[in-house]
From TrEMBL:
Pfam families, alphabetized: MFS_1
Compartments it resides in: Membrane
Protein name: Major facilitator superfamily (MFS) profile domain-containing protein
Transmembrane segments: 6-26, 33-49, 55-78, 90-113, 133-155, 195-218, 238-260, 272-291, 297-320
Domain Major facilitator superfamily (MFS) profile intervals: 1-389
GO cellular component, one term: membrane
Matching SUPFAM superfamilies: MFS general substrate transporter (SSF103473)
Alphabetized UniProt keyword annotations: Membrane, Transmembrane, Transmembrane helix, Transport
Primary location group: membrane
Length: 389
């Protein structure tokens, strides 16, 4: 587990050290060049990751990929700038939905395409490249998808532009409501002095840590044996739960979230979603007392509601972040928040790895008596762990 958690964290560590740089570059030369370069790096280094034969090679390729992939900061700024003001919520929700779908489709591709020579011997021989590199096929599949997206970037317009706001427009901005003033105000102070942005960044980081911890623990808990306090699910069962949660997320983001944002606004909707997230997650331990149709209904419902409230909070916070700064600061602002959030997200897999190893050594410890041991929940099938990570 430590090996896989370190590989998972290496990408976040690389991104944490480079996100600010790519955000500044996006503000200086434009969004499109950074987006194109980031997607190209995914095509190259994700393929090389599938060809890794040593532990250090896997760590190095993921670390370099995280360092060169500066996509997240400029794409959020781009989503704001390419849409009209009334569609900003929809633009950012599409970005967050795409990320959520990646978290669902990624493990699914790994589960179905990993080790193809063993799963599909009639198609792939053990002497072929896919037999010698059992995890090369899912990496190539992702790289091909990224290559298609890279080609489509030819028709993507640049959005950043430089202009001076007349003094009369500045006076008009001061009289606007608070949310609209965030959108149009030509602030000239530094980001570290911009308290509205600083407060949203702190919320963004902590919620990112909470979201990552949830996604890391959910699968481990669900596939754990019931005698350890889990649900005894198979990898296919938890894959079905994630798929349904992803489908509900798409429907919510494209149809419902616009109305939630319109009536509640980003601040209230984020607060309500954060509070509901705590309540929903607190119901998971009690599901171990259910079975059959009741368990399926409870888990599927909770997973769908948790996905909905999580994306509501993250989208609302992202809107507040981008509205709190000028256009020529959005790349940098998103880069700083991405750096901070990446450090938080790097902690979760490493922490889960050490907790897993500690739990294996202390399963019978008197510190956690009984079958409901918190640490024992992390004792899972190694094969699933490889695919999931």
């Amino acid at each position: 587990m430590l090996v896989f958690s370190n590989v998972a964290s290496s990408y976040m560590i690389g991104r944490a050290f480079s996100a600010i740089f790519w955000g500044i570059v996006a503000d200086r030369i434009g969004r499109k060049p950074v987006i194109v370069f980031s997607i190209l790096s995914v095509v190259i280094f994700n393929t090389l990751f599938g060809l890794s034969t040593e532990y250090w090679m896997a760590i190095a390729t993921r670390l370099v990929l995280g360092s060169l992939n500066g996509l997240l900061a400029p794409i959020k700024a781009y989503a704001i700038e390419v849409c009209q003001a009334e569609h900003h919520a929809l633009g950012l929700s599409v970005v967050n939905t795409a990320w959520g779908f990646g978290l669902v489709i990624g493990p699914a591709l790994g589960g179905y395409l990993a080790q193809p020579a063993e799963k599909y011997p009639q198609i792939f021989s053990k002497e072929s490249v896919f037999g010698r590199f059992p995890y090369f096929l899912p990496c190539v599949a992702v790289s091909l998808l990224a290559a298609i997206v890279l080609i489509s970037c030819i028709w993507m317009p640049e959005t950043i532009h430089k202009h001076k706001s007349p003094e009369k427009d500045i006076q008009k901005v001061k009289a606007l409501p608070s949310e609209q003033s965030y959108l149009d105000s030509p602030r000239k102070k530094s980001l570290l002095q911009n308290w509205p942005w600083m407060s949203t960044m702190v919320s963004y980081c902590f919620f990112g840590l909470h979201d990552t911890a949830y996604s890391e623990i959910l699968s481990l808990w669900a596939v754990s044996d019931r005698k350890y306090g889990g649900l005894s699910f198979s990898s296919e069962d938890i894959g079905g739960v994630l798929a349904v949660a992803g489908a509900s997320l798409l429907v919510y983001q494209l149809i419902i979230y616009h109305w939630v944002h319109k009536f509640l606004g980003p601040v209230i909707s984020s607060r309500v979603a954060s509070a509901l997230s705590i309540l929903i997650v607190s119901t998971y331990p009690f599901m171990t007392y259910l079975s059959g149709a009741k368990l399926s209904f409870a888990l599927y419902s909770a997973a769908m509601m948790r996905s909905v409230v999580a994306i509501t909070a993250s989208t609302g916070i992202s809107l507040l972040q981008n509205h709190a700064v000028r256009q020529d600061q959005r790349g940098t602002a998103n880069g700083i928040s991405t750096t901070a959030m990446s450090f938080f997200k790097a902690i979760a897999p490493i922490g889960a790895g050490y907790l897993f190893s500690w739990a294996q050594k202390h399963q019978d410890s008197t510190f956690f008596p009984g079958n409901q041991s918190i640490c024992s929940v992390l004792v899972v099938q190694k094969d699933f762990l490889i695919i999931h990570t």
